[in-house]
Specification:
single chain, alpha+beta, TIM Barrel, Rossmann fold, Trefoil (Acidic Fibroblast Growth Factor, subunit A), six-stranded mixed sheet, globular
Length: 945
């Protein structure tokens, strides 16, 4: 007899719907196999022919951490383009490179953790470079474009599966795993949720990653918002991947749960489907899930729900249908098209902030002095891939103007370090193979990173002149003449062995500490000081050397020398993305580091025709009064220098626009942990001061006129039209921006709010007719009295212009909405967090699973106001649900206290609520004022007649 071929299992049948196939595969898996799938590194199931699968592949602006790849501008730079089509094409290129790289290295994952849609609420956030904008509308527009590119355009199979980071209200690195963002309902729904919601609803998102922080006292990894909001926005099975180490934080640093079994169960029940913890070793997570099952904290059905969502993503990625997956054979990697796109993106990201007397563009016969710490750098950040190609501003300007017309001075201090014995630190020549040397025999520093076989520093009578780069806050790097940075390896020796500062813990940063008649040299990465021993220079707990800093040349002197002989000076300043502002480290100030300020002053004193090009991951505050021209660009990836040079030379007219407000001073900023953008008057939406440069700002080498604004109200939308004309003499892009403002709102509303924009290319004299359809939902706000969005009837201004402050046209439309109604106190009382205004309080978790309460900050006093509360024909009693200890005082309309409700004794815990009551007499509509004193939590206020 001929052996029969076993029938194809349904999960392998490409003609069946994914849901049926997932059901079939899920039924074939054992409980142990399903539990093992919950770790980031899901093992193979060989008996079913199911391969191993890893969630997570960083791809924020190119494929990261997997070696060479095309490097596009940082995310904030992509946000500055205001160009969805461009960003979609960048996402498309990145996803093709993911596929091409996976074909030769199966460590490359198809579940990409990108983009970051956290709003750039506070410019001192260390990860500012990772977001797109402070505005939810612009953020969601750019994020949607990127995810569509990452997803690909096949109707069934996804090229990659994008996961949005980081859910939710995450905008600080200081105490990021223990700090709580107090987010009132209006801010939650009008601001923080919007960027996620609009992007998810667009249909190209595979999931989200919860953030490390807590929101309203509850860790994001057990957030009820995952099920209450996120999973209601789409019919797709969204995959929720934990952030690295965050599952353990629930017990270890946050102390939110007593045991890891409780924490793991709570995360899974809240909606976390994949646990990124303990690196590649899944045994700890497996043991915790199994323990939760054994204790009855979880059921197999709970595990099935998470595994089902994982499998949904894997099926959409074509894993089980290789013959039908059109993306499987993608070979596009470092193509000419990708290189051109990287340059186009970098060019479109450049923002011209100021250009007095048309200093820019530079004439081609300009004698140019190029100075500054970023002038000959092409910096990468933590989420960059390895460069295949690179360009620096200096290299780009050499190409544009000719090396003979460009003079360069980096502006670093040239120093030697003398020991207490009278010798100097010496960098020995590196005895390295030919493959790490270039054509001229010069060392290639990029091939030296991490080497421990290079000789450590020694001392001798003459020493080595080092470039001392001061990055501010007392943090400095030291560089050998051949470009190698001093670094410390695990063995503690100091070597010239790094091409750039970098790594999770940067080993290339030092600090000079005054000591006696000299300085100690602290290595920041290890916290140890540099010592000199017989076998070489090292860091150690004891025996720190006292160095004398001998300055051979000050950076300002070199800058002055080249600036005096130039027609125009270009100062290229900014940040190193691994220093003083990065993941794990917030900035402390908006100001440029003092060293760079000195270089800028020296250049300006030597030559009034000084332009400043800021290359940075975040905004700075600078005094623009004496600078005729200022530009900004984020770190622009592999084509950064070429792009900036082409803009300076006039080959490209700049059209980037600021994606966030540039404030004039640190005093304009709220506290880093103040997430109440409404009450704190934050971002361009509410800020009432004078910004250095406003949201949406950016100049051009052309000029544009706006005309013919028309608006009509339709059944479910407002239709807006206007024209833009290039009135200049060069072809250029303009970014037309449309804002709205409630003319007479009943609650605080944005000063103006972006509702649409479009980037258009126009030749001289060319005119474009722009047409926008705004759904009426764009005019709604979150009404805390009703617990939902509401369109308030009345007049709304439509503002058209070139930035949030450069308004060229305006008109008004009248919308018919739903009038406000007083809060029906007898029917629903007051949820404590649904206040209209507050001071001194913060929102915390009412219980670990769900709900909000309000507590005074650090047990002090909080005042809460609830407007237009209807007591009806009269009430005779008020009740409060409270926990902790303290007093709740109630008054109406700012009058005397009507009731004081005091806890007679502290409750047994923060979630042990009790109900207190008191008699009152009130009728009609009033504003309710509550004063909370002491470390109590108020959850709800009830009234009865």
């Amino acid at each position: 007899m001929t052996a029969q071929t076993p029938p194809t299992p349904p999960f392998r049948d490409p003609h069946l719907p994914f849901a049926k196939r997932i059901d079939d595969l899920l039924a074939r898996l054992t409980l142990d196999e399903k539990v093992a799938f919950l770790h980031q590194y899901a093992p193979a199931v060989e008996r079913l022919g199911v391969a191993a699968f890893r969630t997570g592949q960083e791809a924020l602006h190119g494929v990261a951490w997997m070696g060479q790849a095309t490097v596009f501008p940082q995310a904030v730079g992509l946000g500055a383009t205001w160009n969805e089509d461009l960003v979609r094409r960048v996402g498309d290129a990145v996803s093709k490179e993911v596929r091409a790289m996976r074909a030769r290295d199966d460590r490359v994952g198809l579940n990409v953790w990108a983009p970051t849609v956290n709003l750039l609420r506070h410019p001192l956030w260390g990860r500012n470079e990772e977001g797109y904008s402070e505005d939810p509308k612009l953020t969601s527009a750019i994020a949607t474009a990127y995810t569509r590119g990452l997803r690909g355009d096949h109707p069934t199979y996804w090229r990659t599966a994008p996961v949005l980071k980081h859910w939710l209200a995450h905008n600080n690195e200081t105490g990021r795993d223990i700090s709580s963002s107090s987010v009132r309902p209006r801010v939650l729904h009008e601001y923080d949720l919007r960027a996620f919601r609009d992007t998810v609803e667009a249909g190209a998102v595979a999931g989200v990653m919860p953030a490390y922080n807590l929101v309203n006292g509850r860790p994001n990894h057990v957030s009820p918002y995952l099920r209450e909001h996120l999973r209601t926005w789409t019919d797709e099975d969204l995959l929720v991947c934990s952030d690295a180490g965050a599952p353990s934080n629930l017990v270890d640093s946050e102390h939110y749960f007593d045991t890891h079994e409780e924490a793991t169960a709570a995360s899974l029940l809240s909606g976390v489907d994949s646990f990124t913890d303990h690196g590649t070793d899944g045994s700890t997570i497996v043991a915790r899930v199994q323990g939760a099952l054994d204790q009855g904290l979880l059921t197999e059905a709970d595990v099935d729900a998470a595994v089902r969502r994982q499998l949904s993503v894997r099926f959409r990625l074509g894993e089980f249908d290789p013959a039908h997956d059109s993306h499987a054979d993608t070979k596009d990697f470092d193509t000419p098209a990708h290189r051109a796109l990287a340059q186009e993106a970098a060019e479109q990201a450049v923002v011209l902030l100021k250009n007095d007397d048309d200093l820019l563009p530079l004439a081609h016969d300009t004698r140019l002095a190029v100075v500054g710490l970023l002038a000959d750098e092409c910096k990468l950040d933590w989420y960059s891939g390895t460069l295949i190609h690179r360009s620096t501003p200096l290299e780009g300007l050499y190409e544009q103007f000719g090396a003979e017309r460009v003079e360069f001075a980096e502006g670093v201090d040239r120093v030697r370090l003398r020991t207490s014995q009278g010798t100097f630190l010496h960098v020995p020549l590196a005895d390295v193979p030919d493959e790490v040397r270039g054509a001229e025999g010069a060392l290639d520093p990029a091939l030296l990173a991490g080497r421990t076989d290079l000789p450590p520093l020694t001392t001798d009578d003459t020493g080595t002149e080092l470039a001392l780069v001061d990055w501010g806050e007392g943090v400095l790097t030291l560089r050998a003449p051949d470009g190698r940075y001093l670094s410390v390896a695990e063995d503690g020796y100091v070597r010239a062995s790094a091409d750039q500062p970098g790594g999770w813990v940067v080993q290339e940063t030092f600090r000079l500490e005054p000591h006696e008649n000299g300085h100690l040299l602290l290595h920041i990465g290890t916290g140890r000081r540099v010592s000199v021993a017989a076998d070489g220079v090292k860091v150690a707990e004891e025996g720190a050397e006292v160095f004398e800093l001998v300055v051979n040349e000050r950076g300002e002197d070199a800058v002055t020398r080249v600036a005096q002989a130039a027609d125009v000076v270009l100062v290229v300043a900014g940040n190193d993305p691994h220093i003083n502002g990065r993941e794990t480290e917030d900035r402390t100030t908006l100001h440029l580091p003092a060293h760079q300020q000195r270089l800028l002053r020296a250049a300006r004193a030597a030559n009034p025709k000084t332009a400043l090009a800021l290359v940075s991951a975040y905004p700075y505050t600078v005094d623009p009064a004496e600078l005729p021209a200022i530009l900004w660009t984020a770190h622009g990836g592999q084509a950064a220098g070429t792009a900036l040079a082409r803009v300076l030379a006039g080959d490209v007219s700049p059209a980037g626009r600021l994606p966030q407000t540039w404030y004039a001073a640190d005093t304009d900023l709220p506290d880093l942990l103040d997430y109440d953008v409404i009450g704190g008057r934050q971002t361009y939406l509410y800020f009432e001061g004078t910004s250095l440069f406003p949201f949406g700002h950016g100049l051009s080498y052309a000029s544009f006129s706006y005309d013919d604004l028309a608006a009509r109200v339709e059944l479910d939308a407002v239709h807006v039209q206007f024209t833009v004309t290039n009135t200049g003499d060069v072809t250029a892009d303009e970014v037309a921006q449309l804002y709205t403002r409630a003319a007479d709102p009943s609650v605080p509303r944005p000063r103006r709010e972006l509702v649409a924009h479009r980037r258009v290319t126009l030749a001289p004299g060319e005119r474009a007719e722009l047409d926008f359809r705004l759904p009426l939902s764009a005019f709604e706000f979150w009404d805390v009295a009703r617990g939902g969005h509401r369109l308030e009837p009345g007049a709304y201004d439509l503002l058209v212009g070139a930035s949030s402050e450069d308004i060229r046209l305006r008109t008004t439309v009248t919308l018919t909405g739903e009038p406000a109604a007083p809060r029906p106190l007898l029917q629903q009382g007051l949820n404590a967090a649904d206040f209209d205004e507050q001071s001194g309080g913060e929102i915390v978790d009412r219980a670990k699973a769900a709900g909000d309460a309000v507590t005074p900050i650090q047990g002090g006093t909080a005042e809460l106001t609830y407007r237009h509360c209807d007591f009806g024909a009269g009430v005779t009693e008020v009740t409060v649900e409270v926990a902790g200890e303290g007093v709740v005082e109630l008054s109406l309309d700012g009058g005397p206290a009507l009731a004081q409700l005091a806890l007679p004794a502290p409750t047994s815990g923060p979630y042990d609520y009790t109900t207190l009551g008191a008699g009152i007499v009130a009728e009609g509509v009033h504003d309710v004022h509550l004063k909370l004193r002491g470390p109590l939590r108020l959850a709800h206020v009830g009234f009865s007649g």
